[in-house]
From TrEMBL:
Name of protein: XRE family transcriptional regulator
Record field: transmembrane: 85-105, 125-146, 158-176, 182-200
Source organism (scientific name): Anaerofustis stercorihominis
Top-level taxonomic group: Bacteria
Matches recorded under InterPro entries: Cro/C1-type_HTH (IPR001387), Lambda_DNA-bd_dom_sf (IPR010982)
Lineage: Bacteria, Bacillati, Bacillota, Clostridia, Eubacteriales
Amino acid sequence: MEFNEKLVLIRKEKGLTQEELASLLFVSRTAVSKWESGRGYPSIDSLKEISRVFGVSMDELLCGDEIILLAEEDNKKKGETFKNILFGLFDVFTITLFFLPLFGLKSGSKVLSVSLFSLKGIENYVFIPYVLILTLCSVYGIMELVLQNYDNDNWKRYNTYISVIVSIVAVTIFIVSNQPYMAFLFFIIFILKVFCLIKLR
């Protein structure tokens, strides 16, 4: 008997609905439904809770192949979480770029390094994209960190790619507007993200 069949059987024997079981396990009803339909497995922590709630061992719930599959799935989720945290930290780091003197400002024959807020005498069509891209990166980084445990496959699938695209847009904006320090810094962030994507697959 497969895990999903055992879970349905044990839950019904205890007279619990999916909602009640979800409440006991501190997960969504959708998660319980997914497990019972065989479309996924619980995390190891959730499996321990199932074992505790029903008073059965994990060995009774899973067969050998399912244990291996569960361990692989759990490792994959942990790797994905680690990658998302790194991406979030890279993007949140861009908050500091509002204040660091990394923008070039032409003053006579010299080019001064100034912070974004000290950047005077440039047109709004140049200044506004700087503020927007730094704000977008910072806010997106905060979202990445806050929504770590948001259980939505689409968010998890596209999150890292959106973050990489935002970095590419930032590099492009700073290259086109002739801001080499900012372009270089965002290029480094982009390279770090690509490295993480490759290494944490």
